[in-house]
Amino acid sequence: MPKDFSWIIFSVFLCLGICVANYLKIYFVFLYIATLIILISSFLLLRNKVFIVFIYILAFLLGILVSLNQKILPLNHLKNLKIPVSSKIKVKGVILDYPKIYNEYTDFIFGLQQIINRENSYSINGKILVRVFKKEHFFYSENLILEGKFYLPYYKNYRNYLKGKGIYGILKVKKNDKIIHLEISRNNSLKLWIYKLKEKIKELFRNNLSSFSYSIISAIILGDKTDITFPVWDAFLKVGTVHILAISGLHIGIVGFISLLILKILRIPWNLRFLLVIFILIIYCILAGGASSVLRATLMGVILLGAKIFKRDTDIKNSLFLSAIFILIFSPLQIYQISFQLSFLSVLSIILIFPLIKPIFPLFLYKNGFTRFLALNFCVSICSFLGVFPLVAYYFKIVPLVSILANMVIVPYMGFLVASSFALVFSKILFPFLLPYIAKSCDLFTQGLFKINSLFLKFPFAYYKISYFP
């Protein structure tokens, strides 16, 4: 790519294309041909300065293409069949994700294959969210025949959230509805193995930790928030530290660091070492549910490690925008998801605002280790707050005023909790005799986390509720 090329500008044009696509009424074929013409023209002008302009136009058209392509659905797709709301249906399909078990029900994404009537059955395509209100065990890749009532999501935000995942309806299966368990497909053996590993780790946490610690650590290590109660979630939200309950760069960094350290001890060559760490990060990303924050952090890690393998220069800014481009090309509707927006905006605000805020502090603060830590920590906290508070105010109708101070304490503290949680997993394999002691330390760190958060919640004007936001 030419020196003047910027992945930042490319991603901006891609995002603009995705957003503009909602307001365009144009045939996909015409747009596809226009994109091909621009692509060929850009290659013909490869040595010309106009080449970069054509690349950015191509990014804009690519954004429109991927967005429109998402809307092209087969004739037998669930969305096109117009199934009446609250109607009783019987469907056959396969479980496409790791089932989430709540107190009263179990959730999973279901890939539809057939609708079954009394007289006959016919093929159907698409995904549906299944909510089962009875105690049964379900497994990833398991084929089922389900009976239940079909609904559409009532709230617009939730409907858009599901639409971003390609889900166009909800099937509620009550206690008296029939469930027929069929065989488990072996089409994706790696993912099946990863989810079995996830179940074993959850069992390890469940058997060795208190119920409160289990709920928190399952969220921050496995991305499973099903056991976190509303009061706990609300307390973290009001203080502006709810992001710690999601897997982020901290977790990916620790997994990468531990993996590199072990491979270094085993004297694995550098390039092979980086390749193995990339593979481990991808496995952890799937294990943790592949949410936007996990995927973003994993892709950034993969890009940075890939640059090391090929001896190329890269920086955190380019890796951030490259990961955004990758996610949006394959899932353009992610741009409307809260998790995607918060995840990228928080990192971007740190990258852009940090160099402006850092010089404000006197130079002597950066000479001492402790004061340097405090100054840098404060800079990162205020950058993150400035970046995400408009979104938090808009979506959650709250401004966590104490967030900057709280994150200065809680984010570094999280390093101990995450590290001890991973230590608990590794001790099961390497040092089983240490398991009870590490589990106790995990319990103490978790209780300490909530107590620190609760302390900040008691501050005067800790948060401000917004009754109306346009």
Give a nutshell description of this structure.
With 470 residues, the chain is an alpha+beta fold.
Characterization of the model:
- By secondary structure, the chain is α+β, with helices and mostly antiparallel strands.
- The chain folds into three domains: 7-71, no CATH class; 78-187, Nucleic acid-binding proteins (OB fold (Dihydrolipoamide Acetyltransferase, E2P), Beta Barrel); 193-463, no CATH class.
- It has 16 helices and ten strands.
- The strands form two sheets. It has a five-stranded mixed β-barrel with strand order 1-3-5-7-6. The protein has a two-stranded antiparallel sheet with strand order 9-10.
- Strand 3 and strand 4 (121-123) form a beta hairpin.
- Helix 6 crosses helix 10 (270-287).
- It is globular and about 80 Å long.
- It starts with 6 loop residues before the first helix and ends in a 5-residue tail after the last strand.
